[in-house]
């Protein structure tokens, strides 16, 4: 899958999150679950893990479990059950290795890759947490639209620092615009949130763009979903700091 295609798909997914954030309630949870499952499907192929079905199962259970844990908790702090979910997923990663019948080659790499993928899937629960926070739904919209614009700019033929700066500035501008339009988020908070999202998008682009595995469709699924899942926890943290 070409860079431009991946960038457009990521932007579209971010736009879906923005719409879900505007609708609020169950919509964000459903989208977060689907994102976690998509990452679980593609991550083992993207990182070349030796036992892909087992790793996908662990990552999917961890991501979906985290989203449901945040969705069902009665009151703040909404992320308080995430350590339990993640710890359980780590145990499942070791159970996954015990179930292997391929000689358990590259076992350390397999465990590390599975746990890392689970952590990235668990991060998507941040979208649900900030959406449930009082006054947090506009933050979901601001963060998601900043991600959509930043991801779209990645598709432009801009290289090196120029591309990173353009991505960061465009995401910051999108966040500031949302902050100016929606209540509960001022322009400065939207700008800072957008800049943080832009830096994340630029970093992930540099990190994954040259991987040969992205030429195949299944690994590319993880690459297009990854910025959306990781941005969830970023929006939660930055949003709580800026807005409270």
Q: What does this entry look like structurally?
A:
This protein has one domain. Helices cover 79% and strands 0% of the residues. It has helices at 3-23, 26-47, 52-72, 82-98, 107-122, 125-132, 137-154, 160-181, 187-208, 217-242. The protein starts with a helix and ends with a helix. The chain crosses the membrane at residues 12-43, 55-74, 81-99, 111-130, 139-158, 164-182, 189-208, 220-243.
Index terms:
mainly alpha; 244 residues; 79% helix; 10 helices
Report the mean per-residue pLDDT as an integer: 88
Please report the total strand number as a whole number. 0
Secondary structure category: mainly alpha
Model regions low in confidence, pLDDT < 50 over at least 5 residues: none
Helix content: over 70%
Largest sheet: none
Strand content: under 5%
Q: How many discrete domains?
A: 1
Order of helices and strands: HHHHHHHHHH
Number of helices: 10
Keywords: Membrane, Transmembrane, Transmembrane helix
Transmembrane segments: 12-43, 55-74, 81-99, 111-130, 139-158, 164-182, 189-208, 220-243
């Amino acid at each position: 899958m070409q860079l431009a295609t991946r960038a457009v798909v990521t932007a579209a997914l971010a736009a879906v999150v923005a719409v879900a954030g505007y609708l609020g309630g169950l919509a964000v949870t459903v989208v977060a679950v689907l994102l976690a499952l998509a990452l679980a499907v593609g991550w083992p192929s993207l990182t070349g893990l030796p036992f892909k079905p087992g790793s996908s199962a662990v990552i999917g259970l961890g991501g979906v479990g985290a989203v449901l844990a945040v969705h069902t908790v009665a009151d703040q702090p909404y992320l308080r059950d995430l350590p339990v979910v993640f710890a359980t997923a780590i145990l499942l990663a070791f159970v996954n290795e015990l179930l292997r019948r391929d000689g358990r080659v590259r076992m350390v790499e397999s465990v590390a890759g599975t746990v890392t993928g689970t952590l990235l899937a668990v991060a998507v629960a941040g979208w649900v947490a900030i959406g449930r926070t009082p006054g947090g739904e506009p933050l979901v919209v601001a963060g998601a639209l900043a991600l959509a614009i930043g991801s779209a700019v990645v598709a432009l033929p801009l290289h090196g620092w120029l591309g990173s700066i353009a991505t960061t500035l465009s995401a910051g501008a999108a966040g500031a615009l949302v902050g100016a339009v929606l209540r509960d988020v001022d322009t400065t908070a939207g700008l800072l949130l957008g800049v943080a999202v832009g830096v994340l998008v630029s970093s992930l682009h540099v990190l994954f763009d040259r991987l040969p595995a992205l030429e195949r469709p299944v690994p590319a699924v993880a690459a297009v979903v990854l910025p959306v899942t990781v941005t969830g926890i970023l929006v939660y943290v930055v949003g709580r700091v800026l807005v409270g």
